[in-house]
Amino acid sequence: MGNILLPCAVTTQTESVESPSLEIFLWRQSCATRIVLLEQGGWTRNSKRILLPAVSHRSEEDEEAALVQLCHRAPTDKKPEAASWYREQGNQEFKRGRYQAALRLYSKAASHELPGSPEVSVCFANRSAALLHLGHFEVCLEDIARAESHGYPDRLLPKVLLRKAECLLCLGRLQDAQDVLRVLESKIALDGVMTTHLTRLKKLSQLKVQLGEKERCPEPARGEHGGTRGEPEIWEENSRISGASSSLSLSFDAERGRHLVASQDIVAGQSLVKEEAFVSVLCPGESLALQDGDTAWDTRATNADLYCHRCLRQLLASVPCQGCSYAKYCSQDCADMAWQQYHRTECSLGALLLTLGVFCHVALRTVLLAGFAEVSRLVEGSHHGDKNPQSPEGNCRPLSEADAGAGSRGVPGCDSSGRYQSSYQALFHLLPHTEHHSPEHKFLCTLSVVALCKQLQAAGLEAAVLSQESPQQWSKAKTCEKTSDELSPELKTVAEAMLRHVLQLQCNAQAITVMQELGPHWCRMRVAERQQLLSQYFFKCRCPACLEELESGAKSVVSIRNSFCCPKCQAQMQGEEDTLCCSNEACATSASRDHLSGRLQDLQQQIKKALDLLRIGKADQAVKMLLKCQMDAGTFLSPEHLLMGEMEDHLAQVYATLGKWQEAARHLKKSIEIVEMHHGPSSVETGHELFKLAQILFNGFAVSEALSTIQRAEGILSVHFGPQSAQIQELQEMKACLSELPRNILQRT
User: Fold this and answer.
1) At a CB cut-off of 8 Å and minimum separation 6, what does 59 contact?
2) Residue among 275, 215, 204 at smallest CA distance from 1
3) Is 50 helix (H, G, I), strand (E, B) or coil?
C-alpha cells in the first residue's frame, strides 16, 4: 500500500513566525519523504480537550490530571477480564456458525491475555477452529503451532491434533497428516467418541493416499493457458531521483519549494513515482471510547483490528504485542521488527498516543526510525545554517544561477552530490509552513508534543529514545536520572523535531482512507471547490483551467454544461441573481432560479421512482416514466446537462433488462456522447460507459462493434485500473469468446 507516493511535495516558501514564544521549537528548514496514514483521525478534536483547561488558566497539575483522565478512556493495557469476555463472545458466535465474527473476537481476546499463559493458547486454539471452518488451512496450522508453543493444556491437545491432521489432509500433505495421527493415537486413551473420529480420519487418509497414487502424473503448470498479460509497464528509474521516473527532474524555487517537473513527454498510464513510505502509522478508526465507570468492551472491528500495525497488510489471524492490547501484526516477524524499530518505546505510551492523535504518533515514530544522532545533526544544522533566527525556513532560499546550473545540487534534502534519496534528511527538509498555521493550532501542537516528551522522560524511556538500546539495557548507566520536570537538552531536541513534523503533516502527508475512482478535476468541480480542497496544503493552483476561471471571472465548464435552458427557445439561461434571463436577446424570457431548481428536484424524484419500479421488476412502467422525464427535462435543461446523460443510461439499463439490446445500445451511445463532453474521451467515466456498451453489444451478438468497443474500453480502463482489474479481465474474456466464433459469423456481424 502506498507504493506510488510523491517523494517531494509541492510546497510554498514561508517567511517568519508570528509567535516568538515558540522560538525553541522553530522550524528553520524544510523536510522530506512520504508519510502514509491509513485514516485521518480526530487528533485535533481530542487535543482540544487538553487545550481547554489551559485557556481557563488552570494549574499544571490540573492539566496533567485532565490528560490522564482522557488516557483512561483509551486503554491499551492487557486486561484478563476483557479477554475472558471476548473469548466467551467468540464462543457464542462460533456456535451460531458465524465464524468470521468469532475469528475477530478470539483475536481481541488473545490481545488481552498475558503472553505464554494457558489462556492465550486457548484463544489461538479456538481461533484455529474458526479458521478451519473458513477454509484457511495454512493459517489454521500457524495458530495451532502458536497454541502449542504457548503451553496449550495437555488434556485438550487431542482435539487440536485432530484439527491439525484435518488441515494437512485438506492441503494434500498426506504423510504429515499420518504422522500427526500417530502422535494423536499415542496421546489419547481409548475413548469411544475420539476413536470414532480417528476411524473416520484414517479412512479419509487411506482414500487420499489411493487417490494420490492414481494422480501421480504432474498437473500442467497453471497460467500457461488463459489469463492475461497487460502491456509491459513503462518505467525507467531516474538516476538522480530515487523512486522517480526518468521523465522527471527535481527543482526548487521560493514560490513552490521542492517539486517535480516533467522533462519529457509523459504518456497516459505511465508510472511516475514508486517510493516506500519513510514512516507509516495505522489510524485506529472509530471505536466506542470508555466513559468513567464503564465495564463493557466494544465488539466492533476497527482499523486497529483489521490491519497490521507495521506493514499495513490486512489481518486474518493477528499476532498480538506481548506488552499491550493495541498493537497487532500479521506475523511474528513484523511484531519483532516493529518492537526493535519503535514499538519498544511506544508500547507503554499507547493510551497517550491514541489521546493526542495520529499526527503526534507519526512525529514520534519518525524520530525513532531516524535515530537521535541523525535527528540531532539535522536540528543543529538548521540552527547554524539559519541566518534569520525568526525565519524557520531561512535555508529554503531560491536557487541561485550557480545552483540552477548544478541541477538538483542546491535543492534542500538532496545529498552533497545533488541526488535525492528517500531518507530522514529528505523528510526533514519539507516545509512546515509555520507562518500559515494559526497561533491556536501551533500552541495546541506544542502542548501535545511537550506532553508526549514529558511522558517519555517520566516513564524512563529517554535512554531508549536517545540511544535506541534494547529494553534490557534501559536500567544501566544511560537511564535518565533527572528529578526536575524540565526536559533534558536532548529531549528538547527531540521535541523540536517532533513539533516540526507535526506541522509538516498537514500539507506533506498522504492520508489513505479509501480508494476512490474519481478525484478533483476541472471537468467535475468548479474552481472554488478545487481551490478549497487545496487550501490545507497552502498551495494555489495556477493551471490553465483555474487561471481562466479565476482571472476572467468566466463560468466553469461544469456550470455551463449543467445549466438551465430557456423554456421557449432552449437557449442558455444566464444571470447571477435570483432571476435568470434567456441569452437569446430576441427571446428575452426570464424565469426564477428557485422555480427551475424546484423543477430539477422534482425531476430527480421522478427518476428515482422509475428506478424503484425497475428494481421490483416493473420494467415496462419504468420505461414509460423515464421517457416522460426525458421529455420534461428537454424543456428546461441544457442538452449537455449530465442528468440528460444519466437518463439515457437508465433507459439503456431498462431496455437491457427487457432483452432489447439494440434499443439499449442506442441510448447508451447517447449517454457516452454527453459523458465524453463533460469528462473527456479518455476519462474513467467514459471507460465505464464503454464497458457497459461492450456488455450490451456482446449480449446482442453485434460482434464487430462489440470487438471495437472492447478494444477502446480496454485502452481507457487499463490506464486507470491496471491490466489485472476485474473489468479488464471480463473485457478480455468477452473478446476471446467473440474471437473464437466461426469466421463466416464474424463476417456477417
Assistant:
1) none
2) 275
3) helix
Type and span of the H or E element at 441: helix 439-458
Strand partners, 237: 245
pLDDT digits (tens, 9 = 90+) for 21-39: 222 222 222 222 222 322 2
Q: Rounded to 10 degrees, what is the CA torsion of 499, 501, 503, 506?
A: -150
Per-residue cell: 684? 474513467
Candidates 202, 179, 116, 188; CA nearest to 159 is 188
HEC sequence for 352-388: HHHHHCHHHHHHHHHHHHHCHHHHHHHHHHHHHHCCC
- Torsion angle of C-alpha atoms 522, 525, 526, 532, degrees rounded to 10: -100
DSSP 645-677: HHHHHHHHHHHHHTT-HHHHHHHHHHHHHHHHH
Calpha distance 303→282 (Å, rounded): 7
Separation CA 645–CA 653 (nearest Å): 13
What pLDDT, in 10s, does the model give residues 86-132? 999 999 999 999 999 999 999 999 999 998 888 999 999 999 999 99
Nearest CA among 367, 302, 309, 361 for reference residue 334: 309
Closest to 238 measured CA to CA, from 398, 407, 397:
407
CA atoms within 13 A on the CB side of 720: 20
